[in-house]
Every structure is written in structure tokens, then in C-alpha cells.
């Protein structure tokens, strides 16, 4: 299968849908106390950032309003500092940034 920008945006949207669907009933206390929720949400954030890196430079430059560098930077913080990840930042990302990103990408 040929994997182009549209393919990766579609896969990112699948991850965003997963996060949105599962975070509807999760509050910060749930996230802090449930390792399964933490792992599944952070895994999806990592997957999103890995797919962002697969987008062409031209595509990312064309859509400069999307914080591509921040998305990948979060991946690095999760992967390289997993034991010290600020769950408050993760929660804000999941509940505030993800819905915004989903709205933007769904319009592309």
C-alpha cells in the first residue's frame, strides 16, 4: 500500500478519535490513578507523533498553523522521560489540544 500524506493524516485522525472517545469519561484523578489509561493514552500520543514525522516536509510547511514540532516534542518527553511525565500536562493535551487538533485535521 502506498502511504502518502493523506494516509498518515487518516491514521492520525483514527488515533485522535480513539483518544476523544475514551477521554469523555476520564478526569485527571482517573488518569493519575489508572496505569492502563495512562499507558493507552500516551501510546496514542506517541503514535500520533510518529505519524507526524512521516508527513512530507512540504505538507508540514503548507500547514504551518499546526504545531508539528510541539507534537513531536511531546513524544520525546514521553519516551525519554517516561517515569517523570507530568500527567497534568498530558491531561491538558488529551482534553484541550487533542480536540483542537482533531478539528483542524478533519478539515484538511
Automatic annotation (TrEMBL):
<keyword id="KW-1277">Toxin-antitoxin system</keyword>
<protein>
    <submittedName>
        <fullName>Uncharacterized protein with HEPN domain</fullName>
    </submittedName>
</protein>
<dbReference type="GO" id="GO:0110001">
    <property type="term" value="C:toxin-antitoxin complex"/>
</dbReference>
<keyword id="KW-0547">Nucleotide-binding</keyword>
<dbReference type="InterPro" id="IPR051813">
    <property type="entry name" value="HepT_RNase_toxin"/>
</dbReference>
<keyword id="KW-0378">Hydrolase</keyword>
<keyword id="KW-0597">Phosphoprotein</keyword>
<dbReference type="GO" id="GO:0000166">
    <property type="term" value="F:nucleotide binding"/>
</dbReference>
<dbReference type="InterPro" id="IPR008201">
    <property type="entry name" value="HepT-like"/>
</dbReference>
<dbReference type="GO" id="GO:0004540">
    <property type="term" value="F:RNA nuclease activity"/>
</dbReference>
<keyword id="KW-0540">Nuclease</keyword>
<dbReference type="InterPro" id="IPR037038">
    <property type="entry name" value="HepT-like_sf"/>
</dbReference>
<dbReference type="GO" id="GO:0016787">
    <property type="term" value="F:hydrolase activity"/>
</dbReference>
<dbReference type="Pfam" id="PF01934">
    <property type="entry name" value="HepT-like"/>
</dbReference>
<comment type="similarity">
    <text>Belongs to the HepT RNase toxin family.</text>
</comment>
